[in-house]
Amino acid sequence: MINPKQGNWPGHVYNEEDWNPVTEEEALTGDGITVYRASKTFAERAAWKFMEEKKPSFDLVVLNPPMVYGPIINFQTIRSLNSSSQRFWKFLNGEMKEIEPSSSPLWVDVRDLAMAHLRAYERPEAGGKRFFIVSDEWYSNQDIADIFRKNYPMFLDKIPEGSPGKGFDAKPETIYAHDNSRSKNILGMTYRSFETCAVDAGRSIIELLGAEIIGGMME
């Protein structure tokens, strides 16, 4: 849904009417993130085209989340963490020496996204609609550092300090806004805070690390 060509796009409010305008040519010649975003855009357009042309007996609901974060619940290893969990892990293992600039401030907790899937299945009025599944709050890499330093003091020597309290501090008039009201009105969504999400994600990674250490000692 995000249009990367527009950058911060001051004054714009992202909602379900927005589409990434990427072209096939751009997807074929672009970098990895361009290809990734294009694949999602083309897949969704193909799904809606199928619904319009074939008119099947079922309806279609599309959930569009930004970055997805949250605790790990399936079997993984530290080495197999997905890209979003790896971002948190870099703050805990000392790999993040300095606070890197943040790109988009939009995110959603994986548990909220899971709930949105369930609600979309359960509620007939969701049929035939797109939903922007996105948290109310912004986030930044500085926020991750602040939250981890507050909640996991045993890792203080690993977590960069940066500029505490100076999270994603872009002024509203200098960057786009977002509207998740459709998800609230139709799906009844409420969204977790970023601190809750980050604390739970960090705890799950630390528990995974502990399990691996214990497992290695028992081998």
Question: What report would you give on this structure?
Answer:
The protein has 219 residues and is mainly alpha-helical. It is 43% helix and 8% strand. It is built from 7 helices and 6 strands, in the order E-H-H-E-E-H-E-H-E-H-E-H-H. It has helices at residues 24-29, 32-54, 83-92, 110-122, 141-151, 181-187, 194-218, and strands at residues 13-14, 61-64, 67-69, 107-109, 129-132, 177-178. The strands form 3 sheets. Strands 1-6 form a two-stranded parallel sheet. A two-stranded parallel ribbon has the order 2-5. The longest helix has 25 residues, at 194-218. It is globular. 24% of the residues are buried.
**N/C terminus separation:** 48 Å
Counting helices, strands and paired strands, the structural category is mainly alpha
Q: Extract low-pLDDT stretches.
A: none
Helix content: 40-55%
Mean pLDDT: 93
Order of helices and strands: EHHEEHEHEHEHH
Number of helices: 7
Strand order of the largest sheet: 1-6
| Biggest beta-sheet profile | 2 strands, parallel
Strand count: 6
Principal-axes shape call: globular
Brief digest:
By secondary structure, the chain is mainly alpha-helical.
Give the helix/strand layout.
Elements: E1 13-14, H1 24-29, H2 32-54, E2 61-64, E3 67-69, H3 83-92, E4 107-109, H4 110-122, E5 129-132, H5 141-151, E6 177-178, H6 181-187, H7 194-218
Parallel strand pairs: 1-6, 2-5, 3-4
Provide keyphrases for this structure.
219 residues; mainly alpha; two-stranded parallel sheet; two-stranded parallel ribbon; 43% helix
